[in-house]
Amino acid sequence: MRKCRLTFEKLGTAAYMSHLDLMRVFRRMFNRAEIAVKHSDGFNPHPILAAVLPLPLGQESVCEFLDVTLETEVGSFLRLPDLLNPQLPSGLHITGAYVPMMGAGEIELVRSELTAVSGEWPTVDQTINVEKTTKSGNVRRIEIRASSLRLEDARTLTATLPPDVSPQLAVSALGVEFCRIRRIAVYAKLGREFR
Questions:
Q1: Which end of the chain is less congested by CB atoms within 10 angstroms, N or C?
Q2: Structural domains counted in the chain
């Protein structure tokens, strides 16, 4: 058995695929490619797949991660994208496979590209205070520093935020009604690329 981390893109209409549906797609993908995945123990075993930092519904990404333990010997992980991509629907595309070097807890920052569908982004030159309701119902105040938001052009803003702060909070605080959100990078400590 070998642990493997797949990197994949989730674009276009696939952005509207829920997390549970995405996990079903990946289970079917491995079945169709005839690659055995480690299953849980017990009365009703199921494939053990773990999405690292799953996306909210409606957001796109060019850097998503799926951790899996393979039971089938596939040789080099470099072959996996070629074996798995034909089994995926449009909008999902495996871009790489490797042995995981970091745990999900090591993620420090997530960079997202926010594109305004209508209107333009206001100039951000001060800290933005937003409120986030936690799962327990408590309200948590979050400060989004101006340095973590960079205006690329009138319609595109890049936000580099901690993984527990949704870019949607910045969107609502800045008063833009509709925008497309795409995750473009995930970083570990000291600004290293998450692997």
A1: N
A2: 2
